[in-house]
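**User:**
If convenient, please work through this fold.
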Amino acid sequence: MAAPTLVAGSFEVWLNDRLDSLEVDREVYGVYILGILQEEESDEEREEALRGILAAFLDEETTEDVCKQIIHQWMECSSQSAAKSDADDAEVQAIASMIEKQAQIVVKQKEVTEEEKKRKEALLAQYAVVTDEEDEAEEEEPTSGSTVTANDKSLFRNTNMEEVLNRQKQKREQAREDAQKKKEMDKMQREKDKLAKQERKEKEKKRTQKGERKR
């Protein structure tokens, strides 16, 4: 998840500034646009989806330019994060390899300890001397139960990845719903403004006609 997170972080700063300059609500449409860029597979699909959002606020020419700007910036941020992602993957592999080597060392130490334990038991059996202190010493022999293997870390990483993906999916779905509601509310408000403007014109027209009749 390193690459998508890096892309989203650097790109979101640019996107918020661009939406502010267009006087578009960044809180509602910013997350929605980001979700579209992450989900759609081709630039054509991204541009078509973006055009459907921005057309409600911008004229056709401006919508076309802004869509291309958004996609270009997204691709640029993706390229910049690719190198960082490769470095992170190499670091994870190095850590996993180190943990695996440590686990092997612990296993070898346990094998040596088991041999010593057997020799000690044979000696004690020979003289029939078993003390409580020796019993406690045997119980405290180190084990590898607490050792974290590479497989354990991999499972932990995969579980975290699934949780992050689910949270991002829920966030995108909520953003899509919020954006749709906001779009409908904006449309209704424009209709109300249009009707109010028309009513004012009608009233003004009636007052003018009334004044002319009096003269």
DSSP finds six helices and no strands in the chain. The chain has a mean pLDDT of 77.
